[in-house]
Amino acid sequence: MLGVIGDVVQDVVVWTEEEVRPATDTKSQISMTRGGSAANVAAFAAHRYPTRFIGCVGDDLGGHVVERELAGHGVDVQLQRRGDTGMIVVLIDEGGERNMFPSRGASGMLEPVDPAWLEDLRILHITGYSLQNEPTASSVIEAARTVKAAGGQLSFDVSSTGMIDLYGQDAFVDLMVELEPDYISANQDETAMLGLATEDGPGPLLERLDGLLLARAGKDSTRVMRGCDVLATVPVVPAEVVRDLTGAGDAFNAGFLTAILHDPGPEPDLVAAVEAAHALARRVLAHAGASEGDEAPSLLDPA
After folding, report:
1. 95 part of a folded domain
2. Number of H helices, E strands in the chain
3. Mind listing the pLDDT tens digit for each residue in 89-106?
4. pLDDT of 241-298, one tens digit each?
């Protein structure tokens, strides 16, 4: 089973249909959806591989809606309840770019999890966003250590340069070295900030890690690196429709991890896995919010 632990919120998504008009009304469309990077990965992955989500929500309407929505995707949902369910307002301009205003609420209140929730996980995926607040940060780190100690693998999405700043760059680097993630997912700004990669190839931090780096670069090719080597450079097929960038990185992670888990060979086909990640991200780009629309594949369909 794939495990995903960390942030889950309600997203209030605002699509502006004109330039923002200060101090008065701006024509827009607004919807409320499930959000949070970790929860998004679980929702996308569960259609393709058995997936468990572990997180914290409030014992309120928002929390019950989020739980029901995730379960509707086939996710095995394991939640603690305290505080108020987190919420993020996502403002999307006419070009699809996002500005986010988070209030993480219960998402930052996850306490140590039931060990039974971690026992059967082949891979645990964590996000940098989950390191922002205590006790969630310590609970997620302890869960990662538990899965690694039991022989499972760890996937780590760096999440954002802002998150690195909040945590402290040196502390963030030390944590990555300590946790030894098997898979690291990061965009161009994040890889540069941490020294994971440069324009020419692997960076100095990657040489200290044993994990595989998925260096995403938007419309440009994704580079797959380990140590001092570039193992593959996988072109990105252009998206025909870009409705909303929300959740595209999460879709990439879900597509890659489920492809790896479906690969029966001793050495997974990394190029094929990245191509599956790109394909799922393209699906999500074409729909509003962190969604692939109403035509998502059935559970266990690896497509």
Report:
1. yes
2. 8, 15
3. 988 877 767 788 888 899
4. 766 666 789 999 999 999 999 997 788 999 999 999 999 998 877 566 667 776 444 3
Domain that holds residue 280: 2-157+237-285
What are 15's strand-pairing partners? 29, 92
Please give the tally of structural domains in the chain.
1
CA–CA gap between residue 278 and residue 271 (Å, rounded): 10
164-187 pLDDT tens trace: 998 999 999 999 999 999 999 999
Backbone angles phi, psi at 2, to 5 degrees: -90, 130
CA 36 to chain centre: 8
- Domain containing residue 241: CATH number: 3.40.1190.20
Q: Using CA atoms, how far apart are residues 44 and 65, in angstroms rounded to an integer?
A: 17
Distance between CA 79 and CA 67 in Å, rounded? 8
CA 170 to chain centre: 22
Alpha helices by DSSP H, listed for the chain, are 37-46, 61-72, 136-149, 161-167, 169-179, 188-194, 248-262, 270-285
Between CA 292 and CA 221 the distance in angstroms is: 22
Strands across the sheet containing 86-92: 28-35, 9-16, 86-92, 98-103
Supply the pTM of this predicted model: 0.89
Q: For residues 149 and 260, what is the distance between their CA atoms, to the nearest angstrom?
A: 20
Please name the residue that has the structure tokens 């896995």: 273
Helical packing angle, 270-285 and 248-262, nearest 10°: 140
Contact call for residues 205 and 252 (beta carbons, < 8 A): no
Distance (Å, rounded) from C-alpha 220 to C-alpha 199? 12
282 is written with which tokens? 């393209």
